[in-house]
Fold this sequence. Notes:
Elements: E1 2-6, H1 9-13, H2 16-22, H3 33-43, E2 48-56, E3 59-69, E4 77-80, E5 90-91, H4 93-106, E6 112-114, H5 123-134
Parallel strand pairs: 4-6
Antiparallel strand pairs: 1-2, 2-3, 3-4, 3-5
Helix pairs in contact: 4-5
Amino acid sequence: MKVRILNKPVGIATLEREWRRLVSEDEPFWKQYNWFYYWWKSRSEEVNLSVFLVEKGETVIMIAPLVFERKRAGRPVLRFAANDFPNEFIGDVRLAMPVLLKDLFNRNSFDRRWLRQVRQDSDTAKALQAYAENGR
């Protein structure tokens, strides 16, 4: 598995088919492609969005929208994209989370990883907890 990053509007627009494949229509609006795309488009001047994709072969198995945000002096803080809503990654979180977290912790381009406001019953919370407990 590998991690790929998209951070330009054109690249993010190409995710629509993959995003819709990974999210069912009955999931909350904040996980839907249309909501996220228009939210980001309206905030693109304010936020430095990076969409992390975890791929297995040529298939996207997880989408993780994250923001690099400057906090005072120093390097940016990494956080979930939409802090106003419960935060969850999209796709096969349990399989892909260790790959994403290993990639994020190996990057030296930010000071802190600030992943909060995660619903405790979500796959994202369970995968983060499993990683914290045993590194996978």
